[in-house]
Amino acid sequence: MNPICCGVVALAVLVLVLHATLPALAATAKESNYRGWKTLALDNGLIEVQIAPAIGGRIVQLKLTGFEYLWVNDQLAGTVPPASGVGPNGEWLNFGGDKLWPAPQGWERDDQWHGPPDPVLDGSAHAATVLAKTGSPVSIQLTSQKDKRSGIQFSRVVKVFDNAAHVSIDSTMTNTDTRPRRWGIWEVTQHNVANRQRAGYNKNMSAYCPVNPKSIHRDGFYILFGLVNNPEFRVDPNTGMMKVHYQRRVGKIGMDCSAGWLAVVNGTDGYVFVERFRYYPDKPYPDESSVEFWTHGPGQWVQGDQVLEMKDDPVECPYFMESEVLSPFAELKPGESYSFHLDWYAAKISGNYPVLDCTNVGVTCEPFAAKAGGGTLTLSGRFGVFYPGTSRAIFLDADDREIGKADLRLAVSPTEPVALSAEATRGITVPANSAKVSLILIDRMGRVLGELSRSDIRK
Question: Is 65 exposed, middle or buried (CB count within 10 Å of its CB: 0-12, 13-18, 19+)?
Fold first, then answer.
């Protein structure tokens, strides 16, 4: 048999073996308990989503094989709001996790949300219904009470799939008032930035978000709260990437991100959290922003007509930062609804790496590069992936037409980084006229999930 044919057969057998040995990760929905709260859990063996209906319908935790991403307030763990929906002195009960608010926030006008605190949308129990206990996806629906002040009611459906570190969230806002209402859906996620090995904060916590090349903001972002020269917020002029490096200072920025994704990296523990969403360039947004970041820390900021100050006290000023995704404004007549879709993903990258790019199947942490010589191919790059499976190289000509493909010697999983090496591409022959190579993710059933990255081929 021809040596090339032998190599192809061997690779095909290897891929079949890899597919056969990858475990099936079936999703389930069930009653659970987290930190003393009665919760509903969506679990598929890779990720676990803990939902606490009693504390404002929060997604209180996201785990990837046990690693916890979200911040939970230790002072309030296991407690539920009183009937008033606020603390004994009218204060906000910040339980942590992820929640829905109406946007824009403000204290000057009736068409601004004055929270937090908010005794109804944030501080009252949500009704919860398990829509699907088994199958793919499993799902839970959460529905808030009707809020007279804002005139709206929130609901959202949270889904988890088999064999995926992926959470699908469909949020809906309904006008329950007798007059038109105009709000955006504001999804607020609080990330744990504490140092998990010792006291203090994690100095390797960063968020990444591409700046809109046609941004309406002079610098691609603008300061909402805190110092105008806050060193936590910096745009790389070479890549056009906003990097939010948490340094325990209070601050907030808004961005009209058009790329539709953000990533939060815990570099000390080596994990990444991703949010993906659709951007609508022709629609107005609250705060003229599709993405906002809040860094929680000591310092002063202005809220309405008040100057507020946070002291450097880990109880009064706990260790968290926020990634916030906003929908466009929705003009709703009485009884009308508007929905906004969001996807979460999780992966392990094993180190303090930046996120250079993101697709629906993974993140790029070191550039993807391809080099051909003597008819063979060498690939390099580092990635985090959202699905278990294998990978494939698709060869393209200068006009992006597929002219060949080869399966790599590489099983991939959200629980381990993907670091390409010469071993992964050993024995692969590059077709004549190849100009580019696309790195594709294949699931455990052999189905194409999507493109991880693409590179020109250097010769």
Answer: middle
Q: Which domains does the chain have, with CATH numbers?
A: 28-348 (2.70.98.10), 356-458 (2.60.40)
Helix/strand/coil percent split, the chain, to 5: 5, 50, 45
Q: Are 388 and 413 in contact (CB under 8 A)?
A: yes
Give how far Cα 231 sits from Cα of 216, 247, 295, 383, 428, Å: 22, 8, 11, 28, 46
Cis bond before residue 414 (omega within 30° of 0): no
Secondary structure (3-state) at 379: strand
For the question of whether the overall pTM of this predicted structure is more than 0.90, the answer is yes
- Cα separation of 291 and 24, whole Å? 35
* Strand blocks (E) in 35-165: 37-43, 47-52, 58-64, 67-68, 98-103, 127-132, 138-143, 152-160
Tell me how far apart the alpha carbons of residues 118 and 253 are, in angstroms, rounded to a whole number: 22
Three-state secondary structure call for residue 19: helix
Given a cut of 70, the residues of the chain with pLDDT beneath it are 1-23
pLDDT on residue 23: 59
